[in-house]
């Protein structure tokens, strides 16, 4: 693996020139001192370079030694400058960046050549992970783009198709084959989603779905190129409003199709529900219904990251995703 792939060639040439120049200079000084000290057997270029290299790297085998006071002072100078060059320049400026970037290249950066009609998902979150489970069940192709190295490694560990890169950059989206994708989901902060939408719209006509933390940013995300803007908080408010008008409705009122055949909807938990008093882990909703809980409203606080230890109460509201059948199964458990 060539270092020049990862470090600018100008930098490599500069550092190499400095190091070689210093070694040559020190070698000639060494030759002069060995002759002055009468060490004729060591007065040759090979020994000079050998001594300079071992002294600069602080290895110092001790088989070749300068004995005069001037020679000892020169040895100290070579050691100190060697520490600066090797540990202050060579390692931090060339070796370590090379190793780090070489490791990063092991992260996936391209989708398979035959991937098409897939879903491009920008950033990994709990909502996305649950959404992916639904995509897998329906055998829908997808790829997650994330610029967090650790997040990508975690996705790889969980066998989730992903690539490493900034989803707001053209090159990354092209490597994700956004031009042949069914649609793109922007799932970062509102400002980042706007940049993603602008970039994606510049290079493709893919349908863009953007998540919005702040409802007031909806129009700006649309201006940026998003075809749809979803705000889970807004969806929750609309659903609860409909429930207030018709609290005993037996159908999936307020359900919004998030993907083909996959809906997102909110379910309040009623006092007589068998789920009341149980933790999410004990309730085991996903296994019992097939639906996924992506958020919870409890005690006036909404969380997009519900924990297994969260207790379900009669005033809990679930934000769930799934097919119509899966959500209907969940609805039966909440009443």
TrEMBL record:
It is a multi-pass membrane protein. GO terms for molecular function: potassium channel activity. InterPro entries: 2pore_dom_K_chnl, K_chnl_dom, NAD(P)-bd_dom_sf, RCK_C, RCK_C_sf, RCK_N, Trk_Ktr_HKT_K-transport. Residues 251-335 form the RCK C-terminal domain. One of its GO terms (cellular component) is plasma membrane. It is found in: Cell membrane. SUPFAM superfamilies: NAD(P)-binding Rossmann-fold domains, TrkA C-terminal domain-like, Voltage-gated potassium channels. Its main location: membrane. The chain crosses the membrane at residues 12-36, 48-67, 74-99. The keyword Transport applies. The keyword Ion transport applies. Residues 116-231 form the RCK N-terminal domain. Keywords: Ion channel, Ion transport, Membrane, Transmembrane, Transmembrane helix, Transport. It comes from the Archaea. PANTHER family: POTASSIUM CHANNEL PROTEIN 2-RELATED, POTASSIUM CHANNEL PROTEIN 2-RELATED-RELATED. This is TrkA-N domain protein. It comes from Methanosalsum zhilinae (strain DSM 4017 / NBRC 107636 / OCM 62 / WeN5) (Methanohalophilus zhilinae). The lineage of its organism: Archaea, Methanobacteriati, Methanobacteriota, Stenosarchaea group, Methanomicrobia.
């Amino acid at each position: 693996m060539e270092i020049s792939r990862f470090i600018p060639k100008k930098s490599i040439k500069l550092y190499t020139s400095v190091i070689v120049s210093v070694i040559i200079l020190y070698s000639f000084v060494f030759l002069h001192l060995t002759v002055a000290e009468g060490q004729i057997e060591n007065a040759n270029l090979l020994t000079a370079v050998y001594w300079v290299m071992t002294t600069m790297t602080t290895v110092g085998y001790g088989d070749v030694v300068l004995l005069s006071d001037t020679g000892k002072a020169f040895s100290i100078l070579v050691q100190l400058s060697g520490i600066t060059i090797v540990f202050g320049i060579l390692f931090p400026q060339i070796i370590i960046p090379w190793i780090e970037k070489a490791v990063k290249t092991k992260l996936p950066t391209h989708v398979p050549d035959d991937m098409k009609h897939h879903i491009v998902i920008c950033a990994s979150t709990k909502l996305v992970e649950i959404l992916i489970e639904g995509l897998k069940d329906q055998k829908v192709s997808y790829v997650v783009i994330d610029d967090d190295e650790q997040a990508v490694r975690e996705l790889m560990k969980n066998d989730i198709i992903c690539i490493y890169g900034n989803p707001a950059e053209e090159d990354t989206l092209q490597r994700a084959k956004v031009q042949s994708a069914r649609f793109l989901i922007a799932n970062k902060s509102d400002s980042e989603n706007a940049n993603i939408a602008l970039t994606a719209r510049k290079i493709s006509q893919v349908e863009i779905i953007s998540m919005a933390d702040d409802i007031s940013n909806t129009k700006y995300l649309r201006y940026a190129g998003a075809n749809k803007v979803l705000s889970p908080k807004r969806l929750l408010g609309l659903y609860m409003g409909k429930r207030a008008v018709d609290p005993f409705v037996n159908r999936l009122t307020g359900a919004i199709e998030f993907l083909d055949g996959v809906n997102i909807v909110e379910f309040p938990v009623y006092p007589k529900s068998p789920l009341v008093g149980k933790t999410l882990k004990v309730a085991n909703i996903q296994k019992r219904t097939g639906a996924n809980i992506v958020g919870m409203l409890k005690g006036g606080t909404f969380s997009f990251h519900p924990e297994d230890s969260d207790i379900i109460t009669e005033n809990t509201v679930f934000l769930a995703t799934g097919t119509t059948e899966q959500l209907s199964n969940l609805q039966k458990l909440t009443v």
